[in-house]
Predict the structure.
Amino acid sequence: MLKAQVSTFDDWVDLFQEWKKDIGFDEKTFKRFLPTYVLEPKYEHCKFNEIQFGDFRGDRKWERVLDIPNQNIRDALQQLIVFQGDTEFASVEQQRYLVDRAPSDYDTYALMRINAEEMRHGWQMSHILVTHFGEGGRKEAMKLLDRRAYEQKRLLGSFNEVMDNWLDMYTYTEFIDRDGKFQL
């Protein structure tokens, strides 16, 4: 369990490095297959300044959490971000057994690329929590790195299942995790 405090995103990054060591993430293989990959919270610039759908359609987009007009919406948004981030890190934990069992170098590359994107997505969710949701967000970002899939503590049950063979991985990427461009 990680016991440090998070005041800034840099504090969280230090905990992320501890998390990778704690789960046995294969950093050597990662660097071998993705030597120039840099983890960072990437965001695309949105071309619209107005909310595009729903009850707030046409209103100016919310730039800060306190711009969100209702505490229930703020709380729901934070929960969605927490669950999304939790699944990203859980996927990496689940797939850690597959590195040494890859059928080919191409499969190892694909696994490392998927892990890179899962971790980046987790970084994005954690960055949002740390920088926009105050003390509560910082605590939730820490919990994303504290829970473990192999201890059955991830928020969604399917992310607590052991994935120790490539058939499970192929099935997962084909039928469940269809939103990532490197899985398709």
The CA atoms of residues 86 and 144 lie 5 Å apart.
